[in-house]
Amino acid sequence: MLDASILKAMESVVGGGNILGARDIPARYFHDAAGWKSEPDAVVRPRNAEEAAGIVALAYENSIPVTPRGAGTGLYGGCVAASGGIVLCTERMNARPRFHKEDLYAEVEPGVVNGDFRKMAEAEGLFYPPDPASLGTCTIGGNIAECADGLRSHKYGTTRRYVLGLEVVTPEGRLLRMGARTVKSVAGYDITRLWVGSEGTLGFITSAVLRLLPLPQARTALAASFSDAGTALEAGAALVTDGLIPSMLEVMDAACRRAASAHIGKDIGEGALLFVEFEDMQSVCRESAERASRLLGDEYGAVVRGDISGAERARLLQGRRSVLPALWTLKPVVILEDLTVPRSKLKNMSAEIEKIAARNGIEIALFGHAGGGNIHPAFLGGAGDGDEMIRMRQAVAETAQACAEMDGSVSGMHGIGLDKAPYLKLEIGQSGYEVIKSLKASLDPRAIMNPGKLFYEERE
Amino acid sequence: MLDASILKAMESVVGGGNILGARDIPARYFHDAAGWKSEPDAVVRPRNAEEAAGIVALAYENSIPVTPRGAGTGLYGGCVAASGGIVLCTERMNARPRFHKEDLYAEVEPGVVNGDFRKMAEAEGLFYPPDPASLGTCTIGGNIAECADGLRSHKYGTTRRYVLGLEVVTPEGRLLRMGARTVKSVAGYDITRLWVGSEGTLGFITSAVLRLLPLPQARTALAASFSDAGTALEAGAALVTDGLIPSMLEVMDAACRRAASAHIGKDIGEGALLFVEFEDMQSVCRESAERASRLLGDEYGAVVRGDISGAERARLLQGRRSVLPALWTLKPVVILEDLTVPRSKLKNMSAEIEKIAARNGIEIALFGHAGGGNIHPAFLGGAGDGDEMIRMRQAVAETAQACAEMDGSVSGMHGIGLDKAPYLKLEIGQSGYEVIKSLKASLDPRAIMNPGKLFYEERE
Predict the structure, then answer these.
(1) Distance CA A430, CA A423 (A)
(2) Mind listing the pLDDT tens digit for each residue in A54-77?
(3) What is the CA radius of gyration of chain B?
(4) ipTM of the complex
(5) Do the Cβ atoms of B48 and B180 come closer than 8 Å?
(6) How many helices (H) and strands (E) does chain B have?
(7) B188 in reach of chain A (CB within 8 A)
(8) A407 to chain B: which residues are within 8 Å by CB?
(9) Is B448 helix (H, G, I), strand (E, B) or coil?
């Protein structure tokens, strides 16, 4: 419980309607999209950077935990108030972005929805590549805090590539500007990229300078169907080795495809799917798609539908973006992993995951981004079976271990949060962990920013 | 002077021939390419990561300054032993890189020459974009420490985009691995990018995992000549606004062009030059070059030589890469700036530089990378004229100020080192400076790594 005098002080910063005390908090502020849940003492909704700084300064003085929150679309608990205190929301910080078309960048507030930003950029003839599956609701602030990514990272890179500069509220409640408005700048340490993906543990993002690209002139998509997901992943990796540069290389297994078809009420076909798209000049798209079709058909026995039309493309992408919600309606418990391996190991990794699932008697579905070497195995369970939950957790741990052994990463795009914290050291080692802990201590000496996330100390 | 017992301990780590004490040090270890000079107490040449770690551990125990050094091609004093102590060289750490062709990355030691690495990658059908002008001698370790860049950053980004993972010796002398072998990874803070561009102040790089691209299938180059450099810069920026994505957009003014012609003994033409190159599939290169030629000729009155041949292209690039050495032979004193502004401000910035030069009575020459908004004004002076040196330094300070006012960066690619340290706060502000100082203090508590560089405290 927050002291009434502190609530009153915060109220004087953001105004009465923008601070919700314990009993007035709508339940949507308690949890993230995967169901991680915790109740804050208050929810605060600043309107601008100065208000946000005022709130964090009060929290700092009183050592109150601050959990930054965007749209709550994260999956690993990053935005829930695991240690109480306040949830600091970006939802009122969503002014129209300022586009600098000649210089290919925009200034964007954290509460702007990714999909809205994309559409506004497109209207200016500009392109913002990072496109999480939740782009219709997720916000730019959360995207940056998690270094989010979407379907296009093989060609375009992840969010970190597009953040030229940031303004943040530091844990002491001061405004800090970093980075540049130019692609090239090496003045001092690259603290901009340190903040990107720091999951709200180093401060609260109030504004970003985001790099934009010219809109691609054309797109060509094709859909290749396989008997199994392992071959689809292997075939996707082969396109990259062949020198092609697809913008999307999306895979889903037959179970995901069925679930997505049912969920959106439209038929998106049978078997394991590899969805390939090229974005470039028309001639490049055509040449690339022809080469890809031949390679997938001739070498990997795929049934290929080339140059698919606008409506079919839209249906497949809608299906792809709906896989996770579809699995959620299918099964009471869905544990989604987010691992990355070097592309040449995708097939082995998917075989390993199947073995792990079989060994533990767990049903799995699998989808992923073959370009980035990123696969999402979803472990599916029934409700209320304690033994099954233990086996699911065991499968998760074995998957993290297998991933580390294949030079992979335990988190390709969803972050660490609460969920992956126990596995972080598997990847970065004790010495890497000590380095990030010392950075955290030096930048957030009272440990008020998003406590409990990312860092994890095993109990003795 | 180092204590004899310390020298002996270091000798037992790297072997007798690989530690050069005071009087045995060849002069080439004293200075960088721009003439910044300082004498170390010893030069140490480890063969591998373990030896480097052993040396740094001894330096840490005894609080001896350590200055990492690659090929010494830097321009701002980064590799000179400004505070004495040891220079730690990467020159023996140059084993053949290990290429992972399927996964598009290579493991590379710091002493490998950039140009050698490029050639080996090309032989595998792979492409490493960052290409500093000094690529024939500069090394990968120095490139990473400075976040170096070359002629291609508009299309491909700078060195930071290609560093997937690093192994470094920490200031305490321990080996630390960070990053991944995958394009996507968000496990913990992005400390890999924090080390990239940290100019040897956070540790000694012993190995890097570098991302590679497929080799571009074709190249098309054109050379456009203008009456003045300002128009060449403006025209270059216009190509980007028009949606074209050139891989090179290089500008030099008439003075640089004349100097380069004389230096390489080959005619590279008259007037201000804009060199434009596209790298892509053949059809894209052709389409793009035609559009660029029309735009440069019709809108900006350029005299364009389109689709220039292999020999002519090689001559122009050789000229471009020789500009700085050419200016060095032309004038006794050359102060080279390295500023970046948003592309739309390139023309204004070049006009401002001309005014600053005229106001201070200094001769200037100018070249740069229009794609990245990066211009290199070179202030040229005679020898031994104290008043002129004062006016040159005044021009440098005014240029940094003008750059900050145009939302620019005081260092686009060459780093801060000793030279730009007084101007760093102009760009990152006092609060940004305090953040990087606290990071430095937490990671290098005894301040032994490259002391005197990047950080600068004004005397009271």
Answers:
(1) 11
(2) 999 999 999 999 999 999 999 999
(3) 22
(4) 0.93
(5) no
(6) 14, 19
(7) yes
(8) 180-182
(9) coil
